[in-house]
Amino acid sequence: MAQYRNVQDLRSAQQYRYSHDSGQGTEPSTPRNSSPYSPQAYDEDTEDAPMFSRDNDFEEETGEKHNLWKKNTISRIFFKRFLATTKNRAINYIYVLYDTTDRLIFFLGFATLLSGLVTYGGIFKGNGVFSGLAHFVKGGIFFWYGLLTLGRVMGSFADLGWSWNVKPPASVVGARKAAAPTAEFVESFLIFLYGATNVWLEHLGEAGKGWSAGDLEHVSISIMFFCGGLCGILIESRAIRDVLNSTLVSSSPTTSSPALWQPPTTYGFSTNPFPAIIILLLGMLMSGHHQSLIVSTKLHAMWGNLFFAAALARGATYMLVYLAPPTSLLPSRPPSEIVVAFCLISGGILFMSSNSDMVDVLAARDLNAMFVFTVAMGLTALLMAWEVVVLAVKAWAVRREVRGWGGGRGWWLV
Questions:
Q1: Do 126 and 357 form a contact (C-beta atoms < 8 A)?
Q2: How far apart are CA 341 and CA 146, in angstroms?
Q3: Which contiguous run of DSSP H or E holds residue 134?
Q4: Which of 181, 253, 346, 349 has the lowest tally of Cβ within 10 angstroms?
């Protein structure tokens, strides 16, 4: 009976034992080293004591997952930034390709039209291809530059300072456009490139034969373009202008008034006369250029006189700008430049029409030079009107896009 009570007391004591107390090692009858948490128990029964190792493994596994999560987060952020950078670069490349194609398509269409005309007419066969290419390429340059000049008058290149306006600063148009060269520098460079390439090609049509007076005349014209364009480039160089001014600046007394050393107002706009001089001389030479057929002689005289008139009109523009330099970012649109554009476009068309094969066709069809001149004048007026309309529609579309379709002024005020 006493043993039964001892057992019941022991069971009742175990019912109220703490949750963390295993009961081992607390009873008097239980040896202290029999606890499963003793070193001896851990050594004897390793299968019953993996509790500490499991906790350590859990902590290590949790740390590894945390590090992996951090690495994955960094990878995702880096990948997103990489995709955004790659996307922006790809979009920029697409825009550059689009803009390049959008501008080259005019010249490609022009070349396609001329090649179709040559194919349909059956001209430029044999060595005649050299004369045809010379007239088409050279006349095409003047033709397209006349269209470019008309665009300048309409204000298409005002952001570059090419529309006879004050050149906008970088804060308005960006650093790339603010660093663009002047229009006179571009003209001088084109003249320089024209002469540098043609000086070696003037005798190409008569290769293997002796040099004639006409060949030497054409080579002399190419040299005039080469050196005249180089002079224009040097005059447009700001570095050379500063070097030329350094003689006076280095010898100037320090007590002079600072206002006396400010750049003059004429520095704000280029009045480089070399492009106009070269075109004027070319017009004078071609207007008196003798040809074997009277039709060809008259055609050369016509487009030579047109180039002469274009040079005089450009001189009038320089006089106007020199007397009253532009003071606004908006294009000033000198009226004399419209005359320049008309003469260059029509002169370029007549230049292309004065090649030997087309002259032979005119003579065979009993057509005179005035017929070609009249057609060229009408085509020039048509092209100029079409260009003005297209530029006006573009300006209207840009304004509507900026202001939005709601509100704003009507298209008739553009």
A1: no
A2: 4
A3: helix 128-154
A4: 253
What is the per-residue pLDDT across 372-401, written as a single tens digit (0 to 9) for each?
999 999 999 999 999 999 999 998 998 888
Answer yes or no: are the C-beta atoms of 270 and 182 closer than 8 Å. yes
Q: Are 276 and 311 in contact (CB under 8 A)?
A: yes
Closest C-alpha among 277, 337, 334, 338 to residue 308: 277
**Tens of pLDDT, residues 208-255:** 677 777 778 888 888 999 999 999 999 888 888 877 777 766 665 555
- Outline where 288-368 has alpha helix (H): 294-323, 336-353, 356-364
pTM for this entry: 0.73
Sign of CA dihedral 37, 42, 48, 52: positive
- Amino acid of residue 396: W
Q: What pLDDT, in 10s, does the model give residues 39-50?
A: 444 444 444 444
Question: What are φ and ψ of residue 366, in 5° steps?
Answer: 60, 45
Residue with tokens 């269409």: 109
Nearest to 307 by CA among 286, 289, 337: 286
Place of tokens 């202008």: 241
Torsion region of 306: left, alpha or beta (phi above 0 gives left; psi -120 to 50 gives alpha): alpha
What SS3 state is found at 140? helix
Instruction: With beta carbons less than 8 A apart as the criterion, state whether 123 and 358 touch.
Output: yes
Residue the block writes with tokens 């040079």: 311
